[in-house]
């Protein structure tokens, strides 16, 4: 996120009046940049990651851990430190000849939660393989610098959510009473959100537009002693301060669900995002489409979110909770009431999996597109008239069905075509699992694609591994011209599947059988391939249903051969008739690719440790953070087998995570240095070589 403009934010009734103006100016700005940038060529293959942190308070003798709400002070301290390269934070570099880092100091950004922080590298990473080895030390450097600008008892940790956010009692430092005018939450105070006017306005206007509070209901995990049916014991049915207090009396909190009622429960989650710059528009559109079907797979593989509001959930990932936490659809748009005031029924929240493919690739069959896509025909017409092609016009005409939520009065004076603020207003509040980012107004950088589904991982080793893996997969896609297309509806289904507990091991996902289409000349995957890549007879016009099948993540990531060898006793259902056909697997493809290019031995070995983590995560040899946290809770002496994650467990979990961070910072990737933390780590990491 860029610098946050200051101004007078309109309340919802006023903002609604201006929505049309913002959309129409946004489209003009989009066309301006489109016409300026559509022919851009030869932009460099750059990429960058974003790591989000929770800031917690922890000290050895304190029985409580809390969320620190000092985000503004911490950012201030970071901003006023000119050097940002404290001696104590010299990055621990990997073995062997060290890449010369040309990185400026990292950049720190605010986030929705006042207990959050985001850090990006000082400048995007380049195409050199050696640079991939700088990512992990740089992530460690960021964490160290962040810690250096905090109080001694504050720590940046990379859990996706704070286990007791919204639990009764005290969970923030400082404490604020719940139920303020903006969020009207009975569980979290308004002060939980970043105080910049944009954030409380975003939350308030989503609530207002929707006509009631958001409803974030997560199925509770049913343990041996969980009373059943289970009623969320933290819900208060007797509040009468705001009209929205009626929500729970009107059925907002069903049995067997953990009930949450504010944007902070979703947007207060941390994720790992990767942005790629394409060489031109065509390549950007290709990357957007081809990475899209990988979204749910990577979500399941990075699962890290098993606890909400002090209870174990029956899901492992954050995605749907964020989706519900910012769902601003009205009862009419949701289909609960006949359409009278609103323009259409909208099947998805503005935070949801992608609804469009955008490439003009001939391999994109119309059957893959979403038959339920809602677009604003009027906006599409303007884009077509402005020279944009049908497919991309459809994409933006879909994003522009949404209202702008936060509008600053000062921005409505005149249209400035040297800016993209109105376009970005709509674009950046469409939170889909991929984002197609046009160049900024000054056209200084290229067309970019952002991969957004991954959950943040506890260690920087893991965060680097997943970042590097996605970079390598992207290179493989481009250099082998791979085809991952499946119908968007199947990607949606996969996204739901990814939520299941341990989906990585117990579920199957729709995935394309043949990544090498015969309808298009595919380049050779390189000579010295370690794994032969099967070729398949062309089936260019067969039924679409024949192009994909259900696969385990082990098969998708490691290939069928490896999967057969590693899942003999796993819980994945027995393969059906046609389901034991060969699939090469993404890691073998990455390895073929690495074989086909020039990578020095040291770099290749380091990359292998990252690939090993992904491989073992997919096969179940290593655990997801979600599984690890469940295990931690289950064996904790204070756990009563009743799904409740109390203060002591939370405190000890955060302590373990802080210690893992310290032990990782001590370098050498845990070898022998982590003492009693070793048993905690060994299920999570491949770092014990
Ligand atoms: P947002 O929050 O809107 O996704 P950020 O500015 O926080 O965007 O970060 C996006 C990421 O993109 C960062 O890692 C940054 O280093 C990276 N990045 C910046 N410029 C480019 C570029 N030209 N190509 C690829 N990545 C870039
Ligand atoms: Mg960002
Ligand atoms: Mg952002
Ligand atoms: Mg962010
Ligand atoms: Mg976020
Ligand atoms: Mg981002």
UniProtKB/TrEMBL annotation:
Q: Which GO terms describe its cellular component?
A: glutamate-cysteine ligase complex
Q: Which reaction(s) does its UniProt entry say it catalyses? A: L-cysteine + L-glutamate + ATP = gamma-L-glutamyl-L-cysteine + ADP + phosphate + H(+)
One of the GO biological process terms: glutathione biosynthetic process
* Alphabetic keyword roster: ATP-binding, Glutathione biosynthesis, Ligase, Nucleotide-binding
Q: In which pathway does it act?
A: Sulfur metabolism; glutathione biosynthesis; glutathione from L-cysteine and L-glutamate: step 1/2
Question: Quick one: where's region Disordered?
Answer: 86-107, 519-545
Is the Zinc keyword given for this protein?
no
For this protein, the record's InterPro entries field holds: GCS, Gln_synth/guanido_kin_cat_dom
Low complexity composition-biased segments: 524-533
Q: Does the keyword Magnesium apply?
A: no
Kindly name one Pfam family recorded for this protein. GCS
Q: Which residues form a coiled coil?
A: none
GO MF annotations in UniProt: ATP binding; glutamate-cysteine ligase activity
Q: Which family does it belong to?
A: Belongs to the glutamate--cysteine ligase type 3 family.
Indicate what this protein is called per its UniProt record: Glutamate--cysteine ligase
Question: What taxonomic ancestry is recorded?
Answer: Eukaryota, Fungi, Dikarya, Ascomycota, Pezizomycotina
